[in-house]
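Input.
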Amino acid sequence: MADRADWIEEAEEIVLRETRERLDRARDRDRVGNTGEPEPVGEIARLIARVAAANTGLTPEELARKAAEIDLEEASRAATPQVRELEARIMRRRMLEAGVPEEHVANLALSAQGIVAAPAECDALAKVRALYAEPPEGRTIVMLSGGLGVRKTGSACWLLGKGDGGVYVEADELLAVKIEDPKRYLKLKHAPLVVIDELGTEIPDEKGYWLKTFGVLFNSWYASRARVVMTSNLVADSEADSEKVPVGQRMVRKPPGFRQLYGSKVWSRFEQRGKWFDIGGESVR
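Output.
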C-alpha cells in the first residue's frame, strides 16, 4: 500500500509541477494561462506517454498513431484503480484551488475521505463535456438555465477539474470580490476556465457597479476565449419588460431575461460566442 501511495503522490506532483510551469510561461507571453489551444490529451496521458516511450522504444508519432486506434471509452472503463485515483486527486486539487464547494468536489472527483466519485450522468454534464471539447475558435461560453435540482452547478464545476487556473464564483459575490480581494478578481478576470453560479440572484446596486463589473469580466472572457459556464434560472430574452403574463387569477409583469438584465453588448457577444441550454428533468433535491 505504501508503494502505491508513493507512486500516486510522485506522479501527481510531476503533473502539477509541469502544468504550473506551462502556465507561468503562458503568463510571460501576456496570455495569462490561456494558451488559446485546446488540450488534446490530459496531463495524465502525457505522463503515461513518456513512460510508454521509455519502455517501448516507440517514437511519439508511433505512439500517437497507436493511441488513435484505441477505443477511448473502453480504455477509460478498463483503467486501473491507481490511474483513476490519480486523476480524481488531480481533479480534486484543481477544484479546491478554483473555489468549488466541497460537496461538488466530493460528487465529481474525490471526497475528503478518499472515495473516488462517479459523476452522475445528466443533460447538464453532457453539455459541459461538449464545451470542454469545443475548439478555442468555437462557442466557448455556455449558459445552463433551469430549475432547482437539475444538477446545473455540479455539472458546471466538472469543467474546473479539467485544467489548472480555473475559478468558481457565485454571481452575488462578484462585486465583493472586486472590492475586497483584488488578487482573486484578477485571477477570475484572466482565468482560462470559469464557472459563474446562480446568475440572476445578485442584488443590483443603485449605481450599477455590479453590472459594470460583470460587463468587464464578460468582455475579458470573450476576448481571451476562456471556457465559461454560467448557471441560472433566467430565460434568454423576455421581450418587453412591461408585458404581463397570467399567474393563477392575476396578471403579473414578466420577469426580465438575460438580455434585458445585462444589456445588448453582453447579449450580442453571447450570441456570437455562446450556447444557451434549457436544462429540464426532475429535481434530485
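The mean pLDDT is 82.
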